[in-house]
Amino acid sequence: MKEFWHKHNLRVHYKQTDQMGVVHHANYVTWFEIGRTEMMRSNGLPYSKMESMGLMLPVLDVQVKYHKPALYDEAIGIFTKIKSQSAVRLEFYYEARRLGKAGTPLSLDENIEGEPEGELLASGTSLHMWLDKSWKPVRLNSRAPEVYQLIQNISIDSIQ
User: Fold this and answer.
1) Which pLDDT value is given to residue 3?
2) pTM exceeding 0.70
3) 29 three-class SS
């Protein structure tokens, strides 16, 4: 079965590089967050909507594996999919991939089917838990069944 990913494109900015001329490792976690929030937005669930419903989705754990360095001005694709989900937790999987050398034009975000394109630079996961505004865990299927169904639909496409 084919995999479904959300692809968010970005460019490496000078301020994101270190003295060695490569992207500083901490930027990948930020890029993964951007990929996650844009994936949720593209599927009709921006974080602002979740928050207005009294839902929060804080990070419990983040893992990153670095494969190759990204360099200044390169075109990078952040590929995001749901790795696993339940009524109380949500786990994302990410890949940062080089889409082109310095100056390569960027395309619009898109949902794609199949293997992500480009050279793998970093991969990782983030684990989240559904909470209410008082920081108490909630079961999403009871608290917001329409959001739970939406996450399930995204997960079915991503996990297959």
Assistant:
1) 78
2) yes
3) helix
